[in-house]
């Protein structure tokens, strides 16, 4: 009998698939309680159903490597966003085999164990490759995001009120007159035309300025009208435009909204309510979230170096695999937050609140400022400490 036949045969022998899947999660919770925070947003019954369906589909696809690849690659990608790390796969694999043994009793043979071990390793590898690909893609897109912010003289001219524009026009006219005097071309016709040209440019700029203001107003109207709407592409674009125009968006109520992959580098969202919002894979470099509510928010694989999250509620938020390098998290509530695999190098975590459900497995805290007693309260196995050492046991 080959590997696939052995897997098919043993899988078919399970007396009750649902009971098997439930037992599997029970064993995970007993033997690997540190994995449980990852399942905080779901019920074990739902997870058991999903696992059984996934195993059934996987066993059915074993004869078709392409189908298996198409199924498991994206699944691995999704697992990255759940905060699953490479090291978790072997733990889950072992528990899977133990559960089989427990369920099939004497019918479970060494051949079955070897076949399942091979199939699971292969599946885990495809999932990890899918996750690695997604991580690489996300890094390259977020790192090349450029801020199309208007800077320099044009932005300054846009912002000038009418009286100041007039003074500028007069000053420019004087300069033109002076030049004409120095170079000895007191040609009034030319001078007049030069001045009118300046006036024309001013008027055009003034017009643009008004259009700009009208555009900003439209953006705010879009944001206001999407209040209570979970997913609104128009709101996302409006927020990005406002940010490009350097408009502060503090005190916004964006609870539970979907803002996946939004680009808000350098934005001001202080005091906003983003409780339960989905900001997965967003670009938030240098953004200001001070005193905002981000509890239960999804901030998975977010690119946010130098983000300011001081005095923010991040309780039960998912920040796994995010780049939070040199971020400021002063007195931030991180109870129950998932920071699995997050880059917190050089971050300031002074006064943060953590508890046993704060998950820091795989997080990199090299050079971070944090009170050791706070880290003692969190789950830190596999975390890189501020001094560069890796936590191997609690
Ligand atoms: C071959 C291995 C695995 C398979 C076939 C598998 C299958 C699944 C499936 C089908 C889902 C449902 C959601 C979706 O389709 O995206 C899921 C969710 C999940 N899995 Fe896995 N999984 C595997 C490995 C792991 C490992 C190693 C972990 C680590 C602890 C893990 C943790 C999770 C978590 C946290 C969720 C999300 C729960 C939620 O809905 O919040 N899985 N898995």
Automatic annotation (TrEMBL):
Top-rank taxon: Bacteria
Keywords annotated in UniProt: Heme, Iron, Metal-binding, Oxygen transport, Transport
Keyword Metal-binding tagged: yes
Gene Ontology BP, a term: cellular response to nitrosative stress
GO molecular function, one term: heme binding
Pfam families from the UniProt entry: Globin, Pentapeptide
Boundaries of every Globin domain copy: 1-132
InterPro entries: 5peptide_repeat (IPR001646), Globin (IPR000971), Globin-like_sf (IPR009050), Globin/Proto (IPR012292)
Stored SUPFAM superfamilies: Globin-like (SSF46458), Pentapeptide repeat-like (SSF141571)
Transport in keyword set: yes
Annotated family: Belongs to the globin family.
Name of protein: Hemoglobin-like flavoprotein
Organism annotation: Enterovibrio norvegicus DSM 15893
Species classification: Bacteria, Pseudomonadati, Pseudomonadota, Gammaproteobacteria, Vibrionales
């Amino acid at each position: 009998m080959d590997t696939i036949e052995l897997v098919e045969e043993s899988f078919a022998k399970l007396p009750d698939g649902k009971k098997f899947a439930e037992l599997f999660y029970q064993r995970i919770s007993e033997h690997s309680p540190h994995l449980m925070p990852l399942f905080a947003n779901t019920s074990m019954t739902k997870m058991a159903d999903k696992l059984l369906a996934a195993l059934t589909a996987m066993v059915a696809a074993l004869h078709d490597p392409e189908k298996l690849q198409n199924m498991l690659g994206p699944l691995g990608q999704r697992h990255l966003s759940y905060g699953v790390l490479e090291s978790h796969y072997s733990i889950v694999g072992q528990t899977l085999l133990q559960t089989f043994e427990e369920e099939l009793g004497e019918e479970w043979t060494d051949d079955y164990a070897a076949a399942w071990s091979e199939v699971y390793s292969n599946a885990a590898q495809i999932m990890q490759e899918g996750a690695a690909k997604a991580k690489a893609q996300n890094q390259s897109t977020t790192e090349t995001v450029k801020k199309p912010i208007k800077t320099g003289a044009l932005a300054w001219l846009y912002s000038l009120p009418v009286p100041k524009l007039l003074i500028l026009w007069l000053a420019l006219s004087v300069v033109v007159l002076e030049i004409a005097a120095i170079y000895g071309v007191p040609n009034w016709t030319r001078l007049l035309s030069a001045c009118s040209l300046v006036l024309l440019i001013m008027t055009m700029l003034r017009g643009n300025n008004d259009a700009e203001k009208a555009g900003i107003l439209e953006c705010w109207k879009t944001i206001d009208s999407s209040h209570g709407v979970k997913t609104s592409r128009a709101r996302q674009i409006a927020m990005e435009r406002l940010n490009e125009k350097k408009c502060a968006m503090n005190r916004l109520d964006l609870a539970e909204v979907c803002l996946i992959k939004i680009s808000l580098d350098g934005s001001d969202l202080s005091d906003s309510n983003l409780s339960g919002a989905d900001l997965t894979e967003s670009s938030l470099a240098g953004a200001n979230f001070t005193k905002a509510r981000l509890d239960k928010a999804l901030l998975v694989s977010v690119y946010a170096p130098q983000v300011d999250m001081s005095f923010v509620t991040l309780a039960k938020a998912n920040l796994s695999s995010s780049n939070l390098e040199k971020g400021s998290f002063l007195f931030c509530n991180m109870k129950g937050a998932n920071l699995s695999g997050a880059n917190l190098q050089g971050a300031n975590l002074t006064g943060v609140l953590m508890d046993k459900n704060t998950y820091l497995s795989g997080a990199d805290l090299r050079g971070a400022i944090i009170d050791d007693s706070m880290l003692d309260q969190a789950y830190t196995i596999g975390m890189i400490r501020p001094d560069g050492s890796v936590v191997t046991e609690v």
